[in-house]
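Hi support team,

I submitted a single chain yesterday and got back a structure, but I'm not sure I'm reading the token output correctly. Could someone confirm the output below corresponds to the sequence I sent? I've pasted both exactly as they appear in my results page.

Thanks,
R.
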Amino acid sequence: MKFDEIKEIAVLGAGLMGHGIAQVCASAGYDVRLYDIDNAILENALSRIKKNLNKLVEKGKISRDDADKVIGRIHPTTDLKEAVKEADIVIEAIPEDINLKKKVFSEIDEIAKPDAVFATNTSSLSITELASATKREDRFIGMHWFNPPPVMRLIEIIRGERTSDETVELMKKLVKKLGKEYVVVDDVPGFIVNRILVPMINEAIRVVESGIASPEDVDKAMELGANLPMGPLRLADFVGLDTLLRVLETFREELGDYYKPSPLLKKLVRAGKTGVKSGEGFYKYQR
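Hi R., thanks for writing in. Yes, this is the structure output for that exact sequence:
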């Protein structure tokens, strides 16, 4: 597929990441099919997109007409076939579960256009293994977005073992068209950002767990002492403590016990305190 032939993008998953990805793609002029299994999730996603766009209008960054056009390009659906059948690019943003992702990719491989490119938004899983669930391993690539997608400037492009050079170049052009920057990474656990960031967050949790300092003081120390824009524990709440735990468990399995998750992290996740999305993690939030 040539870059200028890309007209429609399917985004699978309308949750925390998916609705933001859909907003970015629609803002770049693409028609977007936003898929999820539940109409309530889709309605919430559209509401959040509208809220985000309204803020941009209020700040004078876009016009009301432009905001309306973005919304008009997003087509929600609970029909997976409807979502992907005409898509030129499929961006998967479902939960970080390798078996679930492989199941979805195997299913859509039979539905999507033969030349459509599949991209997975994963923070730790093997691109090569996910691609093996399809018959288009050369047109399968990792596309790791950061939260929130409309704000964060970086996308990690991850090359699987059989990802073609043409697919990598296509994705580079797409990322630029979306107004983002990219880095290209080999298929290794955690890629660049999470390979460095996740162990740091885990160590910050251990500091709290051991009674050395409070979450507030840990974050204050790292913001003022290391010039981080957000402390590691508040960032963990925004990422999702359940997501963080899954990433660490993947790291431990692939790379060894150095990446063993903090018991406090496990305790919070088991209690349903997963961060911003649940209303409580290391801090409390209004939902």
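A quick pointer for reading it: The radius of gyration is 19 Å. Let us know if anything else looks off.

Best,
Support desk
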